[in-house]
Amino acid sequence: MNRNIAVLASGRGSNLEAIIKNIENGTCIANLVLVISDNPDARALQIAREHNIKAMYLDPGPKKTWLLPEYEENYVRVLKEHDVYLICLAGFMRIIKQPLLSAFPNRILNIHPSLLPAFPGLDAQRKALEYGVKFSGCTVHFVDETVDGGPIITQAVVPVLDDDTPETLAERILKEEHRIYTEAINLVLSGKYHITGRRVIRTEL
Fold first, then answer.
1. Does one domain contain both 145 and 182?
2. Is the pLDDT of residue 76 over 90?
3. Are 181 and 88 in contact (CB under 8 A)?
4. What is the DSSP string of 103-146?
5. Does 112 qualify as catalytic in the annotation?
6. Which of 105, 120, 154 is the last residue in one of the domains?
7. Using the 8-state DSSP alphabet, how is residue 181 labeled?
8. For position 204, what pLDDT does the model report?
């Protein structure tokens, strides 16, 4: 089975770094062939190059929150040229739309720092604290036309402490993100699941 993955990132590359580490230690079964960023200065690109992984900046176009179709088609072209099977968004600050969704149906993953469907979008940790929840966490989900709304693959729960700030809560959630993203990647690449409605159900082949 094709286990080639690409990571799309916009910033510091923390989840990318964890995925690379888990590939190198044998925990993650993926073959990371490409890292793409919409930010030419993203640390994620530097991390990839330090590990001899192909890294490139692709022009995202003039919009700040999404890729115009002609720019997104270029992303599709590059991903297909590298025989990518699974795309992993890791702090990629663009909304994915139809060209990519059509080219990679149920083959784009995203990780979000909340227990979805609670607190989608930006500033999830701040929203959790303002709402007063006692537990937060992170979610890996398939990407669809909605923002942080695709079928949920796996989640991890993190208690919210009374003295938490958005920064301290984010730091503890991030540790769980590093763990469950590899878990989700392995599940999807293994094919040991099916989707029924919104439910991602694990199976044994």
1. yes
2. yes
3. yes
4. HSTT-EEEEESS-TTSS-SS-HHHHHHHHT-SEEEEEEEE--SS
5. yes
6. 105
7. H
8. 77
pLDDT for 205 equals 56
The single residue of 82, 112, 141, 194 carrying the catalytic annotation is 112
- Confidence class for position 67, pLDDT limits 50, 70, 90: confident
**Residue of 196, 187, 188 whose CA lies nearest to 85:** 188
Q: Provide the pLDDT for residue 188.
A: 98
Residue 42: DSSP 8-state: -
Q: Which of 66, 68, 43, 65 is nearest to 57 (CA)?
A: 43
41-67 burial: b if 16+ Cβ within 10 Å, else e? ebbbbebbeeeebebeebebbeeeeeb
Domain boundary residue, one of 80, 105, 130: 105
At residue 100, φ and ψ (nearest 5 deg) are -70, -40
Model pTM score: 0.96
